[in-house]
Amino acid sequence: MVKLDPFANATQQVNDACDVLGIKDRGLREYLAIPNKVLRVKIPVKMDNGQIRIFTGFRSQHNNDRGPYKGGIRYFNPEGGVEYMEREVMALSSWMTWKCAIVDIPLGGGKGGIFVNPKTDKLSDAELERLTRGFAFKISEIIGPGKDIPAPDVYTTGREMTQIMDTYNKLHGNISTPGVITGKPLSMGGSLARNVATGLGVAYCVREAAKAIKLNLKGAKVVLQGFGNASTFAGEYLEKMGSKVIAVSDSKGSISIPNGAKVSKLLEFKTKTGSVVGFPGSKKISTEELLTTKCDILVPGALENQINAKIAQNLKCKIIAEAANGPTLPEADPIIFKKKILVIPDILANSGGVCISYLEWVQNNMGYYWTFDEVANKMEGNITKGFKDAYAMANKHKIDMRRATMALAVSRVVEAFNQKGIWP
Ligand code: NAD
Question: Where does substrate bind (predicted)?
Fold first, then answer.
């Protein structure tokens, strides 16, 4: 039985955006909410012990009105089981559509994955490769550089992307098609700046938000929840813009560092000891204390469902930059809006990753590769404009940034849909 329904949540957000835009047509609302196609495949794999094991995989293609589907492939086994996973990838593919639209890249939304946890299922590298290639074979007809371009997601890396690309190429007469997938290693046609993309994008958004509320980033105080890929690079780039990190957390706990600490020193300490907890000059605090620390910029960059109504009441920041996906519960949004805290919603704040994925695909398609700065500058253009457009929408309709961002993204897809019309 499906208990939580992420797809119902995604549908609700589309309907809310339609309300803002005055879209009443039920057919159009359904068209915008429901994926164009959800492919469910059976993947038989010969295990190392000679037995056959059957896995289930999905690819949800939500909307391609603005360009080929784009989105990650995750290897995961959510608690709700296979049925839940199907609803989850449908929802995630919907969010990809809006994420691509908000930063105005010519791609649509897709998502997929296999119901498996490579860690707890203890698959050997060889089994994992057979599974990945088996999945690539099953979805090979619906992916392609002009159709659907997958990318890494939970528990998948450049290694799996290379195996999917190689399988696709072999199935197509050994053609070289690096643009069939992104998130590849550099030697396989990956892009520079992919590793820093999400954090850098967060920092660009914060810079624009600070301009909008006239906050000087020189000396601005930053709190980071999480100290992984997204949040450390967000911290590093915000530091380069003049801010300082005064509290941080990881899976082992949270710390406050009243005088601030260099991100590089925190990283060095975490690499040595396995956690930021215990950093010299810091004090251990609770998660709630971390999130409600008096600061200028709060970056929830670890997990979903962190900011509830109670925490929202006690927030003491000016900007929230959602580096993580879904860190704020819907119940908290109206409270945060009332407190005049500027939220940069996840689909905008963490869109740096998909922007660079898009640029990887562009480089692959033209067979010419840009420098780090060229890629970062192009991404900066997309994200900065995305923020400005969403902020203007929020002011125009006097709504919060989350609803404004979604409404703007939906309006862009509707515009493309109206240009094309329905065929046949
Ligand atoms: P990551 O695995 O690199 O880092 C996650 C961090 O969260 C780690 O430092 C971990 O210690 C910390 N953490 C785990 N449990 C915690 C807890 N209870 N309290 C505080 N910290 C905790 O992951 P990531 O790639 O940085 O992703 C983080 C979030 O950003 C996720 O929501 C992800 O979906 C989102 N995101 C990441 C990217 C990307 O390109 N990395 C792109 C878009 C969205």
Answer: 70, 99, 357
